[in-house]
Amino acid sequence: MHAGPDVAYRYAGARSLRERGAVNWRMHRHMTPVACPHGIGVIEVADLHAARGDHMTAKTLARLAGSLTLLALATPSFAGDRCLAGALGERQADAALHGQIVVSTRSRAGLHDTTVLPGDAKTPLRGDEGFRIASVTKTYVAATALRLWEDGKLDLQSPISKWLPAEWTTLLARDGYAPDEITVRQLLSHTSGLADHAQTPQFIEGVKAHPEATSTPTDHVRHLVEWTQPVGKPGARFSYSDTGYILLGTIIERVTGESLPRAVRGELRLDRLGLSGTYWEQYEPAKGRQRAHQRFEGLDTYGWSPTMDLYGGGGLVSTTQDMATFMGALLQGKVFRRADTLATMQSADGLPADSTYRLGIFAYDFDGVAAAGHSGFWGTLVATEPVSGQTIAGAVTDRADYPRLNAIVGDYLHQAVSQGAKPACNR
After folding, report:
1. What is the mean pLDDT of the segment spanning 345-360?
2. Buried residues in 244-264 as b, exposed as e (16+ CB within 10 A)
3. CA nearest 123: which of 35, 26, 188?
């Protein structure tokens, strides 16, 4: 089936209503799926009712023909995902939600499916909204650093003192860090010994008290020094650090001579991947229809300043479909120029034995099913299962629903791996 993102979402949702009870019918009450020579289309019910009459007016025929023609010309490829249908079984569909969940899947062949779990929302999402994806951004930043490495522009073993502003290295040294010993690779793998300013009570409470306040990368580095102490020697242990990725973002800027958002877009060729709903907030024009409201501890964070998480640890806004597209393309080797770059990104060589993090990507274990991916603070998650090649990405509008999203992703990956290497989910 071939249709545009909105069309596929509506059709897949309407099709699956009785099969999996996962989508509220009121989302589709004004749309009807119809067969057309090039796939599945969706037309207004009012038009269909008019067409059912004994006599169709020229105006009605023109509207019908226009709808079907536009749909047939849409380029993305969509197909109902039976593995997603299985993951969204009655156990998942019946549980109460605090907000809404959007889930998208992508096959190795590039087939997509998107489903919305609307809960009790009066205005259900359509599935093509953008979300602040928070730390999922780290995979894009890490991939950019690795692109520079494979082009010989950045040595992963070089000390961070070679690249960082003198003010920052002085601050870090005063706090007990050794900028001359910490390497770029250790920033990528969260083994630098840096603590994390973003996980401190001062940071969280400060943002909640003054959500519209702006901050700079230097502010975050100063907060690291003021609020924390080093967690270990460079290379000794894994300790997740948003601050480390802020340093990495600045290193990328100094290597390329460009802003981080521009470097990421250019080095990863995001436009060629067709990521029409992905942009770096505040630095790039908004793309797509709209950004979703995301809640944290009962608070609507839509108007919170993006500068709290903008400089490498986070910063991207994306749709779930775009997240699935990027992760799938990355792990299929379509982002890097050399296969050994992807192998380096996923390698555990030289890392602490108990670390589940590689270079910008997690090595997940969903109850015995291995996957690679990343999650984000607001409740975003993307993962690819390597045997089937299936990728799933999701986002919640209320962070309290993240455990539910995580369970759906795990169930989906189990469904996918049970199909083996054959592309059986999208049929």
Report:
1. 97
2. bbbbbbbbbbebbeeebbebb
3. 26
Could you give the CA distance from residue 386 to residue 388 in angstroms, rounded to a whole number? Answer: 6
Average pLDDT for the chain = 85
Two tokens, residue 379: 């409740």
Maximum CA extent, the chain: 84
Give residue-wise pLDDT tens across range 58-71: 554 444 444 433 33
Q: Strand, helix or coil at 395?
A: strand
Q: Which residues contact 114 (CB under 8 A, 6 or more apart)?
A: 5, 8, 9, 12, 102, 103, 104, 105, 127, 128, 320, 321
Question: In angstroms, rounded to a whole number, what is the distance separating the alpha carbons of residues 243 and 70?
Answer: 46
Give residue 19's pLDDT.
Answer: 34
- 248 and 188 Cβ atoms separated by less than 8 Å: yes
396, containing H or E segment: strand 391-396
Q: Which helix (H) or strand (E) holds 365?
A: strand 362-366
Distance CA(281)–CA(420), nearest Å, equals: 39
Q: Is 127 exposed, middle or buried (0-12, 13-18, 19+ CB in 10 A)?
A: buried
Compute the distance between CA of residue 308 and CA of residue 281 in angstroms, rounded to an integer. Answer: 12
244: DSSP letter: H
Query: Does residue 356 sit in helix, strand or coil?
Result: coil
pTM, whole model, 2 decimals? 0.83
5-19, 80-94, 222-236: which has the minimum mean pLDDT?
5-19
Listed in sequence order, the DSSP H helices in 53-200 are 58-73, 82-87, 90-94, 137-150, 166-174, 184-188
Residue 38 near residue 74, CB atoms below 8 Å: no
Specify whether the CB–CB gap between 319 and 273 falls below 8 A. Answer: no
The whole-angstrom distance between residue 420's C-alpha and the CA centroid of its chain comes to: 25
d(CA 375, CA 36): 38
Calculate mean pLDDT across residues 300-312: 98
**CA-CA distance, 207 to 118, in Å (whole number)?**
28
Contact 401/369 with Cβ under 8 angstroms?
no
Q: How far is CA 297 from the centre of its chain?
A: 21
CA gap 305, 282 in Å, rounded: 10
* Mean pLDDT in residue range 82-110: 86
Is the pLDDT reported for residue 84 higher than 70? Answer: yes
Q: What's the 3-state SS for 2-25?
A: ECCHHHHHHHHHHHHHHHHCCCCH
CA proximity to 99, closest of 281, 287, 300 = 300
